């Protein structure tokens, strides 16, 4: 057995790259799976929606056209999600900053855990809590709002059970709070020490340091965090279904009425068949498109300042 | 305007660990003072106590006094924010704010003081500071571009411009050239030579030639061993430190026998 060890030919070199090839194949497959699933879902939604989209007026439950049916619940969905974001975003960013930059270390950890724990609660529990606890708690506030701000159409005749769009929004706000908080905190703590010290060395106070170095650094990440929260708020089904006593679209946020797309689908889908089923799936398609648009707008906002993102 | 610094029996602690022990030093206004010494000997730690930047690390504290023109910067009731606006700092790696334009970087410290100023006033500050940092000619046509697009040496001079824009009394530099190439280093050293006409400059450097080139006085720090506190071994005219040091450790270090 006399083996002469010849230097490996430069062109063969496949043995050393087997792992690389395997790994790139694996990641490619993962990417394809995501796209395929998305395509199948989109295809299903479109195919099943077409009958409802072009159905004659008398077959549609609203009696006129699909769009008069879907418009009120679309608006309801958007309003609920928007109010939830308005409530949750400032709190979430405040808490995230507190944990990452302001709190003493032995306080920051427990607060962080509690926030993470909020994310672990199932949505049906949130729904039950909103219906049985939060709703009745909100009733006095709704009465107060109606008495003193009743001239604003938003605060019309208040509900006696508290099962209103406003209550649903508050529940949603609590649900998306941990998402926005946890992601923002992760990004805030990644701010380079160098940039924080640059601000401090110029004589910045802690808040000025946060405004000068932490927030600009975290900007795009925070937008993504908010969009993820918005995505959950738009799609949340169970909590809204339990909290809201649905009805027609009304500007009154503190009375019963209004409905969201996911809740509408959940309430009606089990008994639906034929055209009614197509109608509900078409409503789902609308929700899909809204979420897609929201994400594209967020991307656009993030990309607009690419040159100044600090990534270069 | 430029102020003198006196440290009196200064000990620096990280928690319970004594990092720097018993520093006594008098730094003259309008001069360049270099701190040299092997890694870990506490020269950067000591530098950061001069504008209370060491307090960024939780648990770090000092015993003793640092006097800025006779006023103790560690006296109770003294706000570190005020100290830092008088004692500016330039860091080891250039750190312009990446999300700000060159112009906004220069004005960053200025805006902190909450001063509202007219466009012409701020233009004047930007030009004066950038000229002061020998950067004006290179960037005057792209003031609105991000500061992170400049070369490393230009970024470091931008950081110096940002520091001198707020007209501090003292400028601390923590190995300002260690991330720069020789040409950029030369540009920054030339700048240091000009800065001493207006400011008290204190520079930490690992480069002994640099210390010899830019400074009037040099302080040599050393450490007896791992876990022991760093100490100021010798502080004298730069020429004395390099040619005729009185301490054996200093001579060994500057002649390259260790470190």
Describe the protein.
The complex is a heterodimer of chains A (312) and B (259). Chain A has 312 residues and is mainly α. Chain A has ten helices and no strands. The termini of chain A are far apart. The relative contact order of chain A is 0.14. The model of chain A has no long low-confidence stretch (mean pLDDT 86). Chain B is globular, with a radius of gyration of 18 Å. Chain B starts with a strand and ends in a 5-residue tail after the last helix. The mean pLDDT of chain B is 90. Chain B has a domain of 177 residues: P-loop containing nucleotide triphosphate hydrolases (Rossmann fold, 3-Layer(aba) Sandwich). Chain B is built from ten helices and ten strands. A ten-stranded mixed β-sheet of chain B has the order 5-4-1-2-10-9-3-8-7-6, sandwiched between helices. By secondary structure, chain B is an alpha/beta fold.
Jot down its keywords.
heterodimer, A: 312 residues, mainly alpha, B: 259 residues, 10 helices, 10 strands, 25% strand, globular
